[in-house]
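Worked example 4.2. Below are the chains of a multi-component assembly; read each line carefully before continuing.
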Amino acid sequence: EIVLTQSPGTLSLSPGERATLSCRASQSVSSSYLAWYQQKPGQAPRLLIYGASSRATGIPDRFSGSGSGTDFTLTISRLEPEDFAVYYCQQYGSSLSWTFGQGTKVEIK
Amino acid sequence: EVQLVESGGGLVQPGGSLRLSCAASGFTVSSNYMSWVRQAPGKGLEWVSVIYSGGSTYYADSVKGRFTISRDNSKNTLYLQMNSLRAEDTAVYYCARALDTAMALGYWGQGTLVTVSS
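Applying the procedure described above to all two chains together yields the following structure tokens:
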């Protein structure tokens, strides 16, 4: 099973600042089958990024994904008030077992 | 419009069984990758199971041998049969559908709560 480790656990930032979230895999994620999701309290997750760097439909361009192999990054260029939430990475390259990271909470400083 | 509506959650005793349903509209379940993801209270997301359009099924180690994912094409509905339930299975269970162009989960239901307790 591929283990995904996200860092930091919590990111305290102000609106307008840049957020950089990391996701490290225990082994290479094939073909960049890596996604990022946003979840707000009481809501279902929302897909932001798939294939490591492709934005899902309707996702603002302040969200960007990068990386390959075992190291991936989600960047929010300028935080808007609605971006404060929990973010999860997920790998779906191993057909036997998909996995999520433990999440990074982006909170208002 | 793609819609996913889960049902079947509730309170069940340890060792008991429950079947979750996910009624889909706006697309054909059998033509898509469909998955169950759960979230224990106050915890992160945990992938549970996936069924591919071809019918292959896969499970997380934590539920293998106890849970079964299936679909009913005539009802356009996804199921999760959960047996031998444990307290640690307590969670909100989400049904989700992959994108047409990638296996990332682009469509989600609102979730249904399963509580395993005596």
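Take a moment to check your reading of the output against the notes. The radius of gyration of chain A is 13 Å. Chain A is about 0% helix and 50% strand.
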